[in-house]
Amino acid sequence: MQWLHTLDIECYTPSDCATSDISAVHAARATRTFTPQLARRPENAEVGRDDSDRPRLQSGGLFLEPRRPGASGKLTGMPDRIEHVVVLMFENNSFDRMLGCMKAVYPTLEGVDPNRTLVNPDFPDSNHVFAQLKNAAYSIPVDPGHELDDVLRQVDNGCTGFVADFAQHAPNAPEDDRYQVMAYFSLDSLPVLHTLARNYLVCDHWFSSVPGPTWPNRFFVHSGTSLGHVDMPNGFFHPGIHLYDQPTVYQRLSERGNTWKIYYGDFPQSLLLVEQLKHPLNYHRLDDFFKDVGGAAQDFPQYVFIEPYYFGAKQNDQHPPTDVRHGEALLAQIYNALRGNQDLWRCTLLVVLYDEHGGFYDHVVPPAAIPPDGHTESFSFNRLGVRVPALLISPWLDPGVLDTQFDHTSLLRYATGKWGLGPLGDRVAQANSFGDVLLGRSTPRDNCPAGLPVPDAQSNPMNVALNAHQAALAGFSHHLEVNVTKAGDATILQNSRSMAGNFAEQSETVAQRARQFLAQASQK
Length: 524
Description:
The chain has 524 residues and is α/β, with parallel strands linked by helices. It is built from 16 helices and 15 strands. The strands form four sheets. An eight-stranded mixed beta sheet has the order 10-9-11-4-12-13-7-14, sandwiched between helices. A three-stranded antiparallel beta sheet has the order 1-2-3, with no helix packed on it.
């Protein structure tokens, strides 16, 4: 894999933003920690007691009493009936923004309290403040900052730096855009996400793994580490493509003979991991997911990761400026497909996650963490990123709130404990697993929503520049085409010209480069 040392990429990013001296910001560390608790039910849940007078959660005569994993991380108690894990990871939204309104359903959820309005000061006029109001827009034109230095400024002084950081990135943005940094969606304004939150388990202390952007956080969900890197491609003189040759959960699954697939919309970001380049046959287009989910349950992969469309008219990753209802539609389609196959549904866990907060406000200070490995030259990795939305969806789960502290490595802790996989670093080894809450029922629920309406959304804007994530993937796609696929000069020239075109041409070219690599690699 010597080719990865050659950093030959194209540049399509916006101009760099001024950054502050982050070393001083690093010194301010949040020390708040959270103690694992029982899952919490809505107000109308009954509280029962067993013979030993220990509180349990009662639902329809069945008790949910979470069991803790043993020291090895393997689950104890009733058999784990989950045979398939499906992970859908969206982009760039905070917990408060997307699920903070669920406090109206679950009063003990750590969400948005309309009777206790939180504010952030403006910049440079700190006497002018912006409140947390329920007027989140489905689409906003400006992408808030979420690089490492941005996030450390945002969470400083009790999470009071979100608006000020945004104002420094976009000083000419209208006042309403600053309100949007603080805004949250009102209850049921996201009908798919909020219906699922009403009916399944909300994790209200799931944090991104790194106080930084998309790439390092997605590396953590795949491998438990970013090998010390916290950056992304950001201009010609800052390519940000490194050698990501760490073991992945997919490598560990293959070693144990477990089946897995990655379904993707246009360009799978996970191809940045060297190990993934060895498994082109495990990559499939998103349309194939809906075909595969309709087959026999035993033929469906044991572990599935879904990467949405990141580009163009079909973009549904919920990254600004795209309308978040495109992601709502994808979530409904995935849920409906799983729910429509009864045999598969009864043995599947759907995990809905967001890679990071995208610069949007959340009021919970990220807690301390341990570094995943010895790669701490660029960042100490001793704190988590901002809180993100997370849902656990299965007929083996009752509605409620789980306030155990999680981050993306908790998903890997569950997978490694469940299937006896090999190690994936120190962060995974110490992470909390959510597997115990899947062991509380003796029978699956029969009152799960049978299907969800697929919402409409406004057409994605096509007269826009590539956002930071898109620009980073575009640069890597060129690198992949030149150094891995080794396309001919004519193809490289044609695609480079297309990348100088409009957003639609750029989007199609990046997707074509992924298809080209996977088709060629699959033939070897």
